[in-house]
Design brief:
Layout (H helix, E strand, L loop, with lengths): L1 E2 L1 H12 L8 H12 L6 E2 L9 H14 L8 H12 L6 H14 L1 H14 L7 E9 L2 E8 L30 E5 L2 E7 L9 E5 L9 H13 L3 E4 L2 H6 L5 E5 L3 H4 L2 E5 L8 E5 L5 E6 L2 H17 L18 E10 L2 E10 L8 H6 L12 E4 L7 H14 L8 H10 L2
Parallel strand pairs: 4-15
Antiparallel strand pairs: 1-2, 3-4, 5-6, 6-7, 7-9, 8-9, 10-11, 11-12, 12-14, 13-14
C-alpha cells in the first residue's frame, strides 16, 4: 500500500482510540489532509513497523501545514488551535469514552483508569513533560522532588470545573473528557489534571456550580470515591476550597510518599476499639486511622478533629483559637484504601504564622503545588534546580511546618495530645 506514512500512522492511533472503525480510515485521512494540506511524500507502508508517538506525528503534520502555507508556526495561537484539532481525532466523543471506561471498569478499576489516562496522554490533554524528577531522602523521610515544564496556556474563559467545559473552546478544553459518576445520589465528573503535580493527578467535581463545604457529608463522598477508585487517594485543598465558587476534590496514585511512611507509635482511642490509630513517621504531624468500617472511621475522624480543634499547648506555641476566638486548628484529611481497610491520614494544621511555610520555601516551590507537598511530592518552580541548597530549604520548611516539633519536646507533646483522646 502506497501512502503518506505520517498521515497513515496518525490515523492508526486515532483508530486505536476507540472512537472510529477501520472503515473510517480513508475518510479520516481526507479530513486530516483537509486541515494540513496535501502531503506529497508517499511510500510503501508496512503495517508492522513501529510508529511514532502521537505528539511526534502531530509535530510533523504541523510542519506539513506550514509548508503548505496554511499556518505560521511562530503564531502560538494558530499552532495550538491546529494542534487541538488534530488531537481531537484521537479523542472519542464523551459517550464513547464513558462507555469504554465502564467496559474496562468491569475488568478492573485500574484497567479503566489506565485506559482513560493513556487517552489523556495520547491526545496531549495531560501535559506530562518532566523537567527533573528525583526521589530524595531528606532527614530520613522519602520525598519525590520534581520540576515540570508546562506549556503556557491562555486564560480560561469559563469555570474549569463546570461540565460545560468539556470540549469547550478551540484549545484548552477541546479534548477534555469527563467520566460521569453518581456519588451518593449526586452527579459528579472525573478528569485528569492537565498539569499534573503528582502521578495520575485526578480532579473530582460535582456537576453543580457551587462551593464545597468541609463536613461529614463531603467526607463520606470522599470515602465513596476511594471505593470507586481503590488505587487512588482522595483529598482536597482547604485553602482553595474556601475561595473556589465551584468546589472540587483531588486525588491520584495512592502510593505517594506519605502513604508509604511507617507508623511510629500505635495507640488506642477509647470508644473506638475497631480503629487502629498511629502516629506516622513523617516530618509534619500526622495521625493515621485505619478500620474496615467506614462509619467507625468517620466517627473517629470527627472525634479526633474536634479534640484537635480544642487543643492548646502554649509553651510550644500551639494555640487552638486566636484573640478573636477564631479556630486556628484544622485537619487536612487524605483518604485511601488498603484491601478492605479504609485509611485516613489526618495532617494536623495550625493556621498561626508560627507554622506557616517559610519565605525561602515559597520562593522555590511552584505556586500551585500546595498541598501535595504535605503528601511528600514537592513541585519546584520550573527554573529551580534540585540541589543541596534547595533540598535544605525544603527540609527546614517541613520542620517549621511540623506542629509537634521533633525530635526535642515535640514527640512528647504529641503523645500528650494523644492522651487527651
Ligand atoms: Zn463551575
Amino acid at each position: 500500500m502506497i501512502k503518506n506514512k505520517v498521515v497513515h500512522d496518525f490515523i492508526s492511533i486515532a483508530l486505536q482510540s476507540g472512537g472510529w472503525m477501520e472503515l473510517d480510515r480513508l475518510y479520516l485521512e481526507n479530513q486530516v489532509i483537509a486541515l494540513v494540506g496535501p502531503v506529497n511524500e508517499e511510500e510503501e507502508i508496512e503495517e508492522e513497523t513501529q510508529i511514532k508517538s502521537s505528539k511526534e506525528l502531530v509535530q510533523e503534520l504541523l510542519l506539513v501545514a506550514e509548508k503548505n502555507e496554511l499556518i505560521d508556526l511562530k503564531n502560538f495561537e494558530e499552532k495550538a488551535e491546529l494542534n487541538a484539532k488534530l488531537m481531537s481525532f484521537l479523542t472519542p466523543p464523551p459517550s464513547v469514552v464513558n462507555a469504554l471506561f465502564s467496559q474496562h471498569y468491569d475488568t478492573s478499576e485500574k484497567e479503566a483508569t489506565d485506559y482513560f489516562y493513556l487517552m489523556n496522554l495520547t491526545n496531549g490533554y495531560v501535559n506530562e513533560e518532566n523537567n527533573q524528577y528525583k526521589s530524595e531522602t531528606l532527614d530520613d523521610y522519602s520525598f519525590i522532588i520534581q520540576s515540570k515544564k508546562w506549556q503556557s496556556t491562555s486564560e480560561f474563559t469559563m469555570c474549569p470545573y463546570c461540565f460545560e467545559s468539556e470540549g469547550h473552546g478551540k484549545v484548552e478544553n477541546t479534548n477534555k473528557r469527563l467520566i460521569r459518576m453518581n456519588l451518593k445520589g449526586e452527579s459528579w465528573g472525573f478528569y485528569y489534571h492537565p498539569k499534573p503535580l503528582l502521578r495520575e493527578h485526578s480532579i473530582f467535581t460535582p456537576e453543580n456550580h457551587q462551593p464545597l463545604v468541609m463536613n461529614r457529608q463531603l467526607q463520606e463522598t470522599m470515602l465513596q470515591l476511594v471505593d470507586v477508585y481503590p488505587h487512588y487517594f482522595v483529598s482536597l485543598d482547604p485553602e482553595v476550597i474556601k475561595l473556589s465558587p465551584h468546589g472540587f476534590l483531588y486525588g491520584g496514585d495512592n502510593q505517594m510518599p506519605l502513604a508509604l511512611a511507617d507508623n511510629n507509635f500505635m495507640f488506642d482511642i477509647p470508644g473506638f476499639v475497631t480503629v487502629e490509630a498511629s502516629l506516622v513517621n513523617w516530618p509534619t504531624s500526622v495521625i493515621r486511622l485505619k478500620t474496615t468500617s467506614k462509619k467507625n472511621l468517620m466517627n473517629a475522624l470527627e472525634y479526633v478533629t474536634l479534640k484537635w480543634q480544642q487543643y492548646s499547648y502554649p509553651s510550644l506555641d500551639i494555640i487552638a483559637k486566636d484573640e478573636d476566638g477564631k479556630d486556628l486548628h484544622s485537619v487536612l484529611p487524605v483518604f485511601r484504601k488498603e484491601e478492605d481497610a479504609y485509611i485516613v491520614e489526618m495532617i494536623l494544621q495550625d493556621a498561626s504564622s508560627e507554622f506557616s511555610r517559610s519565605k525561602a520555601y515559597e520562593a522555590i516551590i511552584h505556586e500551585d503545588a500546595y498541598p501535595v507537598d504535605q503528601l511528600g511530592v514537592i513541585n519546584l518552580k520550573q527554573d529551580v534546580e534540585i540541589n543541596e541548597t534547595n533540598l535544605a530549604v525544603i527540609t527546614e520548611n517541613m520542620a517549621k511546618q511540623s506542629i509537634f516539633r521533633r525530635p526535642q519536646d515535640g514527640q512528647k507533646a504529641f503523645l500528650r495530645f494523644i492522651d487527651t483522646l
